[in-house]
Each structure stands twice: as C-alpha cells, then as structure tokens.
Specification:
Elements lengths: L1 H26 L2 H22 L3 H22 L6
Helix pairs in contact: 1-2, 2-3
Length: about 80
C-alpha cells in the first residue's frame, strides 16, 4: 500500500507542475500558477501522510500546508503600483 500511495503522491506532484505550467501559459499570471502548484503539493503531502504517519511525514505535510497558507495570504494582497 505504501508503494501505491508513494506513486500517487509522485503523480500528484508531477500533475501539479504541469498544471502550474499550463495555468501560467493560459493566464500569464504567476499568482495563479503558484496557487495551483501549492494545492497539488498539499494534496501530495496529505496522501504521503496517509501511508506513513511518522513524525517526519507529519512535519513535511505541516510545512507544506503552512507555506501554502503563508503564500496564499501573500497572493491575495493587492500589488503596489510604483
């Protein structure tokens, strides 16, 4: 089961990279592409956590979620005009 979950996590990470590239290509905004990538990385981290609930995997998932929340908050702030 761990191999299946690891493979699913790896596929989600690859899909996240492809989805982020496609989003950037279509919208030409880095914010949208980063948001898509972070969502896929969060899903991949949670799938890995389901397979091996060790402290290392819990900390990795928590770090990805904290980074996603921090960057999502920063992405919603309006841009300053110079």
């Amino acid at each position: 089961m761990n191999t299946l979950l690891h493979t699913a996590s790896l596929l989600l990470t690859a899909c996240g990279l492809l989805g982020a590239a496609a989003t950037y290509r279509l919208s030409h905004t880095f914010r949208s592409a980063l948001a898509v990538l972070l969502d896929f990385l969060t899903a991949a981290g949670l799938i890995q956590l389901a397979g091996d609930p060790s402290w290392n995997s819990i900390l990795q998932a928590a770090a990805v979620i904290a980074l996603r929340k921090l960057l999502s908050t920063g992405l919603t702030l309006p841009l300053k005009n110079p």
